[in-house]
Amino acid sequence: MAKDTGSPVVESRREILGRIRRALLAKVGFEGLQSSGVATPGAPGTPEPRFAKGGSGPADRLMEVLLDYKATVSVTEPARLSRVLAEVVEHQGIKSVVIPQGLNQDWCRKIKGVDIITDDGKLSIAELSTIDGVITGCSCAIAETGTLVLSGLADEGRRAITLLPDFHFCVVRSSAIIRSVGELFTRVEVSRPVTLISGPSATSDIELRRVEGVHGPRNLFVVIVS
């Protein structure tokens, strides 16, 4: 039996689904179907469609997604970076941070009362586990997904130092913010280990209870330098 595509029930269903679709498109503010493979546009923690003309810039979008991930975000100018870092580090009441050998030492000059340990590559897992926080730069940040990308550059250090301390303070240059995942491969050398960080470490158990700190720091602080 052929389906009755013109029945009132079918037409009503089409109308309802059409209204839902239009509402979702209006919510995420993009033009046409330029999606990034997202099953549910606008769902928290998922890549959203490409930027529409006249929409917010990459830095604004990155901040929005990071906040949705429950990260703490600050925006500052280069001249105030050391002061802002000192404020966010000292405000957490931590006693020690580890930094990569290639990190700009000037970033840490205003941090007081905190033991700053430079990683020479010889710190053991046990030693890193006793350090409260880590300060790094990043290779780039993906605005669309709120992802920080570390590729082992001099100011990012080896992967272990960003996985074991409980606090990660990451400095992101605004020039290093890219719009989409597709641009990542033009900015990062993928032959080296790459760490992708999308918010503080968290997962859910079988009962959907949120568990933090399983795969990395429980607390992520991002300082965007304009």
**Tally of alpha and pi helices:** 5
Q: For the terminal residues, how far apart are their CA atoms?
A: 65 Å
**SSE sequence, one letter per element:** HHEHEEHEEEHEEEEEE
| Structural class designation | alpha/beta
* CATH class category label: Alpha Beta
Which CATH architecture is right? 3-Layer(aba) Sandwich
Overall mean pLDDT stands at 82
- Largest sheet composition: 6 strands, parallel
Number of separate strands: 12
**Beta-strand percent range:** 15-25%
Question: Nearest-angstrom radius of gyration?
Answer: 21 Å
- What is the strand arrangement across the widest sheet? 1-12-7-4-2-3
Give the overall silhouette.
elongated
Overall number of domains: 1
Point out poorly predicted stretches. Answer: 28-54
CATH fold field value: Rossmann fold
**CATH evolutionary superfamily:** NagB/RpiA/CoA transferase-like
